[in-house]
Design a protein that fits this description.
alpha+beta, 3 helices
């Protein structure tokens, strides 16, 4: 039973690896700190920070993961979150 669970975990982690490799925001080493305003969502924040490259979906996923948000990605006014910043956007 333990071997089967271990194998399943390894397969799951291998399946997730391409997501991390293809999403540059998940490899960012710089973050901006943002205080969530009333009515804002992770998507709205991602739209502001994605810049001209328009990788809003990738940034929204990264914000969700970096901040360990719940499965719905809910944020509340006053909440402080980290937003990954790509180096090429801020030279």
């Amino acid at each position: 039973m333990k071997i089967g669970t271990g194998i399943l975990l390894v397969v799951f982690l291998i399946a997730l690896a391409p997501l991390h490799l293809s999403n540059a925001y998940l490899r960012a080493d710089r973050f901006d700190t943002v205080v969530v305003k009333p009515g804002e969502s992770v998507w709205a924040i991602a739209e502001k920070y994605a810049g001209e490259n328009k990788q809003v979906k990738e940034l929204a996923v990264a914000i969700h993961e970096v901040n360990s948000l719940d499965s719905e990605g809910r944020v509340v006014p006053g909440q402080v979150i980290k937003v990954p910043v790509l180096a090429e956007l801020h030279k």
